[in-house]
């Protein structure tokens, strides 16, 4: 058996299904590029039949990907999903169709309302349909961990005979325990007569905090594909995190004896990029990627570290890409320095993009003494990787007040579909005043579901990163804004969310991946 583990990244599909993690088209393309740089083997780019937006982004990612990475689309075991999925991925140099059907008694009876025999027939017909398009077919038994092992063996054998080359066994609801899960996976691999013709994969959710543990346990017994997501995002509690699985295999290669193609020093840039895109800061105590993962507080630990780093550190910050770059960008930096800095951060900008971002860097440098890598990444994200918006903020002016009878006020100047509009008004606080005025100008009344502010970097002049989630008419959308002034950042985030809400409404509702 080979010692190579294939890393199947589902950040753009299962990850995007997590609340508040919606990405726009440009953001998905950017993230897909970074996933390639990171060295993942397969990118699950989306679920093409779920919406026209998903179809378009999967097909664009497929067209742009190099032959080093496989581009996969998800499809239910439904013929029209499979046909649509193939349409979306067929232009990739290395396409894959991933089709799935539920195999647990619970799902078959209550969700699919199909008998086990009907599920077997549907799976066979659908895998054959996929195999008619490509040799690279993945078949998943949804809710595997609550399925009857012998039924799974039957359907897996049939799927391999019908043309599946990867068999995925998910812990869909994060129910399994590591030893139990590993022995279920091993049972299937040992009892399926044609199992040597397929690669076995696992896909573990984190409802009990065991997604990574279950994934690693299955790799120990012979699974050779791990389905993971950056920062562990995904349905409900999320998926097994890519960075944790990859670094466990790397740091403990003595134990696992397995290798991946992940370029570990690209882990932090990839995780940070995702966090900026979806506006969800990486939690402070997150393994591998957050600052605290490498900071030592107690005196005993300091003493140990000073004497020998390995006393309290099992990997270096540099090994996961948390390295300090020496190129400092400021007021006097020229175009070439800015270009090289972005290249070092993993962004290759064309001339037009460089001009766009260069002006924004200069404006930031006027306001801020020290520009950090995170500031630059936030800036490029805001300036470049977004689709044209119908609403554009020009200026805001806010005054706060703690005097009774003098309410906080806001005045806003903005473009609505290219027409300049302005307004002024009050609120219970300055942010409330800002949001009221913007809502009046655009003629909408969204409900503010979430407001969060985060300092991108340290210091009094840190760039404020605001995330808001708005809901209106049954749709919700997230928006982000950055600025050293938190009122401006808040207004930008609010306008961004309104633009995203409008785009979501245009895209129409998506089919959820597990709605059969
Ligand atoms: O969790 C799950 O079972 C899935 C399948 C579609 C693979 O996401
Ligand atoms: Zn899943």
Summarize the structure.
This protein has 516 residues and is α/β, with parallel strands linked by helices.
Structure characterization notes:
This protein has 516 residues and is of the alpha/beta class. The chain contains 17 helices and 14 strands. The strands form 3 sheets. An 8-stranded parallel barrel has the order 1-2-3-4-5-6-7-8, surrounded by 9 helices. Strands 9-10-11 form a 3-stranded antiparallel beta sheet. A 3-stranded antiparallel beta sheet has the order 12-13-14. Helix 6 crosses helix 7. It is globular. The mean pLDDT is 90. The structure holds 3-methyl-2-oxobutanoic acid and zinc ion.
Number of strands: 14
Main sheet strand line-up: 1-2-3-4-5-6-7-8
Distance between the termini: 35 Å
- Taking all Cα atoms into account, the compactness measure Rg is 24 Å
Q: Any idea what the shape is?
A: globular
Helix share, percent: 40-55%
User: What is the residue-mean pLDDT, rounded to a whole number?
Assistant: 90
Bound molecules: 3-methyl-2-oxobutanoic acid, zinc ion
Instruction: Give the amount of beta strand, in percent.
Output: 15-25%
What structural class should be given to the helix and strand makeup? alpha/beta
| Uncertain stretches of 5 or more adjacent residues | none
Number of separate helices: 17
User: Biggest sheet, open or closed, and with what strands and sense?
Assistant: 8 strands, parallel, barrel
């Amino acid at each position: 058996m080979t010692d190579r583990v294939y890393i199947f990244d589902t950040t753009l599909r299962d990850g995007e299904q997590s609340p508040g993690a919606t990405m726009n088209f440009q953001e998905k393309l950017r993230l897909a590029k970074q996933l390639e740089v990171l060295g993942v083997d397969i990118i699950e780019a989306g679920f093409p039949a779920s919406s026209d937006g998903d179809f378009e982004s999967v097909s664009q990612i497929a067209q742009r990907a190099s032959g080093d990475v496989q581009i996969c689309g998800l499809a239910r075991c439904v013929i029209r999903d499979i046909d649509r999925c193939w349409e979306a991925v067929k232009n990739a140099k290395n396409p894959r169709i991933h089709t799935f059907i539920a195999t647990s008694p619970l799902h078959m009876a209550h969700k699919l309302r199909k008998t086990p025999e009907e599920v077997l027939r549907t799976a066979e017909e659908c895998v054959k349909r996929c195999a008619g398009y490509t040799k690279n077919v993945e078949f998943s038994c949804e809710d595997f961990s609550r399925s009857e092992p012998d039924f799974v063996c039957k359907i897996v054998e049939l799927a391999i005979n019908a043309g599946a080359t990867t068999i995925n066994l998910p812990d869909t609801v994060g129910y399994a325990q590591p030893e139990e899960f590993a022995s279920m996976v091993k049972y299937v691999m040992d009892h399926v007569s044609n199992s040597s013709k397929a690669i076995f994969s696992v896909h573990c959710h984190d409802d009990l905090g065991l997604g990574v543990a279950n994934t690693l346990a299955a790799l120990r017994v012979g699974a050779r594909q791990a389905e993971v997501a950056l920062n562990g995002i995904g349905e409900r509690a999320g998926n097994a995190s890519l960075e944790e699985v990859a670094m466990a295999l790397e740091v403990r290669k003595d134990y696992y004896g397995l290798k991946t193609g992940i370029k570990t020093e690209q882990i932090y840039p990839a995780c940070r990029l995702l966090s900026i895109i979806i506006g969800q800061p990486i939690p402070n105590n997150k393994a591998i990627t957050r600052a605290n993962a490498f900071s030592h507080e107690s005196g005993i630990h300091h003493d140990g570290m000073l004497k020998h780093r390995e006393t309290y550190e099992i990997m270096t910050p540099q090994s996961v890409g948390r390295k300090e770059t020496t190129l400092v960008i400021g007021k006097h930096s020229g175009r070439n320095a800015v270009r090289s800095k972005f290249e070092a951060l993993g962004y290759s900008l064309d001339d037009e993009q460089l001009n766009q971002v260069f002006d924004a860097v200069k404006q930031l440098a006027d306001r801020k003494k020290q520009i950090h890598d995170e500031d630059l990444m936030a800036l490029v994200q805001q300036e470049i990787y977004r689709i044209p918006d119908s609403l554009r903020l020009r200026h805001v002016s806010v005054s706060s007040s703690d005097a009774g009878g003098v309410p906080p006020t806001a005045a806003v100047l903005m473009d609505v579909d290219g027409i300049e509009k302005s307004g002024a008004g009050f609120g219970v606080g300055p942010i409330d005043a800002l949001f009221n005025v913007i809502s009046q100008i655009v003629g909408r009344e969204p409900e503010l579901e979430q407001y969060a502010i985060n300092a991108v970097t340290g210091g009094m002049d840190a760039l404020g990163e605001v995330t808001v989630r708005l809901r209106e008419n049954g749709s919700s959308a997230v928006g982000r804004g950055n600025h050293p002034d938190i009122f401006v950042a808040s207004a930008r985030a609010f306008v961004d969310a309104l633009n995203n809400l409008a785009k979501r409404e245009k895209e129409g509702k998506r089919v959820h991946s597990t709605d059969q």
